[in-house]
Amino acid sequence: MDQIWKRVKSLLKEKVPGHSYRMWIEPIEFCEDCADTIVLSCPNPFSRKRISEQYGKLIESALCDAAGQPLKMNLIVGAAHPADSPENPEERQMKLPEMDLPARGGQLLRQDYTFDQFVVGKNSDFAYTAALSLAARKLGNQNALYLHSKTGLGKSHLSQAVGHHILKAFPNERVYYITAEDFMNEMTGAYRSDNIHQFKDKYRHNCDVLLLEDVHFLSGKNGTQEELSNTLESLMNSNKKVIYSSCYLPSEIPKVNDKLKSRLSCGLISKIDLPDYKVRLRILKKAARSGGFALPDIVLQYLASELVDDVRQLKSGLIGVAARASLLGSAVDLELARNVVDDIVTRREQITLDSIKQLVCKYYKVTLADLTSRSRRQAIVRPRQVAMYLSRRYTDHSLQTIGRSFNRYHATTLHALKAVEKGLKENGPFQKHVDFLSQRLEKGWG
């Protein structure tokens, strides 16, 4: 039977993509055979779940072809106990404490951002595999991963899942999860308090895994770029692990010095694309189970077919349907779901670059010519930045397209986004202005 399994692996190697085969199929080993069942072993519960879901039917089909008779597969973790045994402690899901985990430094890791909670599809298969491989020490000499996607598609989830996995498997590892902006602020504070040596020691010598979010924020921040470049060089020389995440590829981030751009580009770059219908439906079903929402399949199918922008929009629709049904005391049906989807989708479809410009001009009492002019007066610059921010938030246009629409380069657009985001964090009058404009757009002003 061992020879049959070797033939099966040869067959699978031709049918499964190379990186998937090396990650999932190659580690599987033959254990024993029992009548019409072959017992195989895999390294851990994550592997067993993934292999069973994605490759179970393919493996059993190959087994039948190789053996010339129907064979069932029994996949176990390790070689000691069958996977079906209720007494096998390794088979039970590894549960994290009911709280967000501290990452030994930086921000907290969200409790639900684990590999087990991530819904994998064709849009994210490579990114998921790469992240899990790095966390499980299976990427060889490759210790850096750059996760790239639009907002709301799961790059933060995967980044934090690496942290969770490493803290569970290697509890003595020092995992730091931090945004690029917080890294810059911490460095600035260290200089001001004359603690820069302590700051450098923290990240260069007392960090084993660095999870760095939103690296595009460092555009134009020359001092922080230099410090981060030196930190990354120290970490890489010490064989430490670094996971970056960003909405942009390293080559797309303007005003980044060559040294840092080289560091960001030398890791494995993996993109997460928009999920297709099947993946969206699985995401909704999983979110419904996790949230305790009892929604009919036909409603979930409708939401999956209509809400196509990102994962956050999907979950917003799910929560909206459940909340509306609860508040109105009505049944969850297609009519209710359509009303929720109309609120989310229809208004957004009506939002264009022109409609955003018109609203901003009316609100700030400026002209369209002012927005596209070369004027640097604050009374013009701020409305222009807000208009660019709303354009990025409510349309699918690229930075280049938005920039051209305002007679600017994409680097200026990125600077405008950062300026508005910084203003929003101050939670003052400016945030209320932007919230008001956002509400007007979503409700269909005019």
From TrEMBL:
It comes from the Bacteria. The keyword Ubl conjugation does not apply. GO terms for molecular function: ATP binding; DNA replication origin binding; lipid binding. Keywords: ATP-binding, Cytoplasm, DNA replication, DNA-binding, Lipid-binding, Nucleotide-binding. One of its GO terms (cellular component) is plasma membrane. SUPFAM superfamilies: P-loop containing nucleoside triphosphate hydrolases (SSF52540), TrpR-like (SSF48295). It holds the Pfam family Bac_DnaA. ATP binds at residues 152, 154-156. Oligomerizes as a right-handed, spiral filament on DNA at oriC. Domain I is involved in oligomerization and binding regulators, domain II is flexibile and of varying length in different bacteria, domain III forms the AAA+ region, while domain IV binds dsDNA. Plays an essential role in the initiation and regulation of chromosomal replication. ATP-DnaA binds to the origin of replication (oriC) to initiate formation of the DNA replication initiation complex once per cell cycle. Binds the DnaA box (a 9 base pair repeat at the origin) and separates the double-stranded (ds)DNA. Forms a right-handed helical filament on oriC DNA; dsDNA binds to the exterior of the filament while single-stranded (ss)DNA is stabiized in the filament's interior. This is Chromosomal replication initiator protein DnaA. The gene is dnaA.
